[in-house]
Every structure is written in C-alpha cells, then in structure tokens.
Amino acid sequence: MTKDKGGQRFRLPAWFRLAVVAVVAVTVAVVVLVQVTEADPVTASPPATPVPLAGRLPEAAKAGMPGPGGDPDRKTLVLYDDGRKKDGTTSPPEEVRTAEAYAMFTANLVSRGTAWTMQPAADYRARQANDFQAVVYLGSVSDAALPKAFLEDVTAARIPVVWIGANIWQLRAIPGWRAEGYRDDNPTTVTYKGTPLRRDPRSGTGVVAIDVRDSTKVQILAEASAPGGTPSPWAVHSGQLTYVAEVPYAYAEAQDRYLAAADILLGVLSPQAPNRHRALIRLEDVGPRTKPEELRRVTDFLIREKIPFSLAVYPYYSDPQGRANDGEPTSARLVDSPDLVDVLKESVQAGATLVMHGYSHQSDNGPNPYDGVSASDFEFYKSSVDGDGVVRMDGPMPEDSVRWFDGRIATGLGEFKRVGLPEPTMFEFPHYGGSAVDYQRTTELFQARYDRGSYYAGFCPGGRCGSTATATTEQVYGQFFPYPVRDVYGANVVPENIGNVAPVAFNQHASRTAVDMLADAQSALVVRDNVASFFYHPFLGEGGLRDLVNSLRALGYRFAAPAEILGD
After folding, report:
1. Rounded distance between C-alpha atoms, residue 66 and residue 61, angstroms
2. Contact residues for 44 (Cβ-Cβ < 8 A; gap 6+)
3. Residue 136: its pLDDT value, please?
4. Range of the domain at 191
C-alpha cells in the first residue's frame, strides 16, 4: 500500500480479485468429488454431434444497453479517471488499470436502471450532460484532471449526478455541505437504512470526511463509523447531487457497504424501481456421475413445494488420471446416465431451468488446480495452488481461443440434444473463471449468464468495451451483483450473491453455514428490488435446503425463476 497527499491507494493481488468470486464455488470441490465418484469406473460413449453455433442468437446484445428492468429510453453518462492528473502527470499503470476496472463495475450496476455510455472524465465536453438523463462520476484517482466544463455543468445540473469517491473538493459550490479531506480514522461499518454493513479496513481507498453545514438542504443517506468512534456521513444527497464518500469496491463481499452504493445508484437512476425481494435456487455441479437418487430427493421437494429452481449441468465427466476412481481413468456422458437424464427431464417438465455449467468442469491437461476431475477443477482458466495452499489464477488456458471455446460448447450442447433435453440458454463458468475471450463469446451464444462476473483491465480502453486484445491477464477483478444487470460484455447476468453451504474450510476459503448465508440475505434487504441467489449441492440432502427455503421466506423473500428475473 502506498500513501500520498490525496489519501490511500490499494491494489488487490491478481489472485485475490478472482478468488473473491470463486471462493464459494471452489470451497466444496473436494466434497463434490467424493460424492460424484462412488461408482465403478466407466468409459464414456463417443461424443455427441456438435450443434451448429452460427446464428444461435438473432442478435448479440452490446455493452451499454440497459439490463433487465432498465429503461432503454434513459441513458447515463459514466465518467471515470484514466490517470491524467491536474498537475500534468500520469498515475502509475496499476492505478490506471484499477480505475478502469472500477468504472466497469459502475457501468454494470448502472445498467440495472438505464442504458449507458462510458468515457474518461478528462474528455468531457461542455454541456455533454445535456444528452443524458443522469451522470455518474467515479473518482478513483486523487487530484485527477477534471475539465472546468464538467465542474460547471455539475454545479448547474438539472439532471441527477452521482459522484463517487475522490476529487469532490474540485467542486466549489455544494449546497449544505463540504468535503474536509480524508478521514483520519479507518471506518469498519457503514450504516444504511438502519442496517450495519461491513467495510473491510484493508480496503485502503480512503473515506472523504463530509461536513454538513445546513441540514435543511442535505439528506444523509448513510453513515460510517470506526470502532469506538462517532458515526458521520458516508453518503449524502443535496439538490441534484448525490455523493458517496469512497469508491466501494475493494474487498467488497457479502454484507458490505457495496450494497448501500448499489442501492443508492438504483434509487437515483431508477426511482420507480419496486421494493421487492426475490430469491433464486440453483442446484450445482450436476454431471453424468451425479447420483440420480440424491438429485431426485432434492428436486422432488422443490417440485412439491412449487419452488422454481435451476440445474447447473456439465454434460461430460472426465477423470483422465483416475484420481477419484482408484487409479482407473474414467469418463461418462449424459447418454451413459439414463436414470440421471430421467430426473433432469422430469425437472424440466415441472418448470426447472437448465444452465450449462461448462462442458467438463475440468481440464484434461492435468490438475487445474487440484486433480483434473470434473466438478473439482477449473475448465476455462488456468489455476494452481501455491506453497501456502492458496489458489492462484494464472491466466487463460494455453489453448484458449474462440474456436476452442466453441468446440466445447457445441459438443456439450450436442450432448443435451442427444438425450432429449432442451439446449440450455444460460451459461455458468465453472468456478466463475474464464478469459475475456470466453466471456465475450458467451454473450454471442447464450441469452444470459448465471454467475458472478470476472472482468479484465484493458477490456474497455477509453470507455469502449469489447477489446479482448488489450485485456490484461495479470489483473482479474470479480464482482457480484445484488440485482440483474447487463455487464460490459453485453451479457444479461442472473446474479448469484449469497454463496452456498460449504461444510469444510478449503485452501484460503472458510467454511460456510446456512446461518452465514441467511445473514448475507438479511443484509441484502437494504437493496430495493434485490435478488438473494444461492447454489446448493444435491448430495447435501433435502433437509438443509428445506431450512434455507423456509428461512428465506421468513425474511420476506419470494422464490422466482431466472426467466422472471430477466423479464423485469
């Protein structure tokens, strides 16, 4: 961490950025492995005929379009710092990359309310805001170069302006309050709508001190406090300006102040958003070696209770080294598992949603990072375990390309078709890991993703998203969403955000209980129109799932299908 007169700057290690999104997916990998491999070794049938991918979607969506529930007739200008500073110098490259990544995070959230255009704030033109219905500025670089025209237009704004983080001191006239530099303490709690939310003290972003001078002109939206300290404003609204005192993305996990920022954005950009709370269930890691009787017990319960659910299915099981089968190389496809297919068909007939969870959920090139066994390893991103037992994200697979990705998807979809199942229209990356090339291609092949997103600095140079050639591999950023969005890949994203039951700690990941998940869901109620979304491994049985369902209902959540979430 480094400090300068503008506050603190923090760069998350590349492995951590992706580990934040992969944490709940990887934690139970060993448990999954044990549960799906208690059967005699088998050799898979030949692969199915690949389905044609050309023209799979009528028209691929594009970044900048509104997400589910967003208003296509409203557009927000998203401005961010690109490293240019007031004194003519340029920020270090890593700070520039982080600023771009955080701008992508912001644009993703903005899509819930409106369409958007993203560009560096330094390129703002006089009266450009007149072409939009709202402006969001993300101050990630202290003392960034902000055009005089931008500052004047914000001061005289007739449309909503959301200012997040640094450089608010460059704005001279703010009705009712003023910024007093950075706070001397390090807040650990942000209280929003009466709910205490976490702020990790390692975030290192610095929190601007807000001094309210005229309470008749200022609405305090949230307050921050350090242990033993007095709460003071963290977010305020005055006139057309809404201000959040820090960029809230570093170390953002469940129950974090990030939820407050996400709700504040939605409230400003989409004030008509309903106050409702929906929940999603996804049955995870269903593959050709999943025990049909275990899956049936869980699906029968959900069907009886008329609870919508999804099934995340990988169509090809592979254990090339026999690591889970007494040294015997083992493989299987859905066509080799007719009893399992019967359960899947019955579930689909009852209204369940099929999600393609990769092709094999592993790599035949060796451990990635564990043992090369399906449901245990990454498929679309290279990983390893270091000497401290920490999972590291090492970059795209050596063979990564559109052609390679298409081959796995086409063959996998062919397997669904061969056994008489509908081709899934949603995709979930195994362990939420894939390259920018893979993510971009997914948008062209599937109607939606169902996951937490992995994003890459360099993908949106100058605010123009889609540059896989310049997307870096050493910097990977993960983001979860409290509501559905259309992200910078142009994909509609069905969120997953409260994780799963993980009975044992694993690598750098702690165990998780249903109590932990419910605490996350309760904190998420601060977000209007939120979705509490989790995944569940069928081998854990019906009882634990029943308790989760009943408890979420008691919190006020209503279970919905992904199609409903995408519909509005």
Report:
1. 10
2. 288, 316, 317, 318, 331, 332, 333, 336
3. 98
4. 71-269
**pLDDT single digits (tens) 469-520:** 999 987 789 999 999 999 999 999 999 999 999 888 877 778 899 999 999 9
Residue 5's alpha-carbon distances to 122, 289, 423, in angstroms, are 21, 58, 56
Cα 442 to chain centroid distance, Å, stands at: 15
d(CA 60, CA 513): 39
Paired sense of beta strands 189-192 and 219-225, if any: antiparallel
Pair 30, 373: CB distance under 8 Å: no
What the block records as the tokens of 230 is 């007095």
Taking residues 270-291, what's their average pLDDT?
Answer: 97
User: Could you tell me the two tokens for 231?
Assistant: 């709460």
CA terminus-to-terminus distance, the chain = 42
Query: Burial level of 18, CB count in 10 A (0-12/13-18/19+)?
Result: buried
Q: Across 239-320, where does the E strand assignment appear?
A: 241-244, 277-286, 310-313, 316-319
Amino acid identity at 484:
P
pTM, to two decimals: 0.93
- For 490: left if phi > 0, alpha if psi spans -120 to 50, otherwise beta; the answer is left
Q: Give the confidence band of 538 by pLDDT, cuts at 50, 70, 90.
A: very high
CA angle 230, 234, 238 (to 5 degrees): 120
Of 64, 68, 57, 55, whose CA–CA distance to 492 is shortest? 68
Q: Evaluate the CA torsion angle 186, 192, 196, 202 in order and state its sign.
A: negative
> CATH no. for residue 84?
3.40.50.880
Whether residue 312 is contained in a domain is answered as yes
Could you tell me the CA-to-CA distances from 73 to 62, 65, 317, 486 in Å, in that order?
Answer: 16, 10, 46, 16
pLDDT in tens, 229-254: 999 999 999 999 999 999 999 999 99
Q: What is the 3-state secondary structure (H, E, C) of 157-200?
A: CCCCEEEEECCHHHCCCCCCEEEEEECCCCCCEEEECCEEEECC
- Whole-angstrom Cα distance, residue 477 to residue 435? 12
- Please check whether residue 29 lies inside any domain of the structure: no
What is the reported pLDDT for 90? 97
Q: Give the residue among 279, 539, 315 at the shortest CA–CA distance from 423.
A: 315
Which of 219, 251, 269 terminates a domain? The answer is 269
Q: How many independent structural domains does the chain possess?
A: 2
- Nearest C-alpha neighbor of 247 from the set 419, 37, 440, 80: 80
DSSP 8-state symbol, 45 = P
Does residue 6 carry a pLDDT above 60?
Answer: no
Task: Say yes or no: 348 and 242 in one domain.
Answer: no
For 332-369, what is each residue's pLDDT tens digit?
Answer: 999 999 999 999 999 999 999 999 999 999 999 889 99
- Residue 56 in any domain: the answer is no
- Residue 217, token pair as written in the block: 């002109």
Note the pLDDT tens digit of each residue in 402-427.
Answer: 999 999 999 999 999 999 999 999 99
Tokens of 494: 């069905």
* In a domain? residue 27: no
Report how far residue 438's alpha carbon sits from residue 450's, in angstroms, rounded to the nearest whole number: 14
Nearest alpha-carbon partner for 443 in 29, 38, 65, 6: 65
